[in-house]
Amino acid sequence: MTTPATPSTPEAPAAPAVNTVAWFEIASDDPEGVQRFYGDLFGWRFRTDPGSAAVGMDYRLISYDGDEGPRGGVFGTRGDMPGHAVFTVLVRDVAETCRQVEALGGKVLSQVVGNAGGPDFAYLHDPSGNLFGIFAPAGA
Fold this sequence. Notes:
single chain, alpha+beta, eight-stranded mixed beta sheet, 3 helices, 8 strands, 19% helix, globular, disordered N terminus
């Protein structure tokens, strides 16, 4: 005797583990163009990040089809910094990780701790000069 198949529903993605790539960011002085390009190319969806908007930052959250949670963001630089695409690693403590980066020969480019508009984060260079980011959730 066979039983009817039960339709499966996609599970929500697991929360990222500490010390893993958990986010990506695309920074541009033309965030509308970036949004149009990746939206048309991959079907990504975008929405304004309310916490960033509250502090005057242009940051748009990226979600994929069938996935409600954001996976990355578009940062409107307003020409204040070069455009980039970067991976970001979830860490327990941004300040401590920045100290470790410098001890291992990397460089801290910018660090924001105690950010009222969102998570603590930093942009860094590894010893080869490659850009990457780290973040810890707000209140962590």
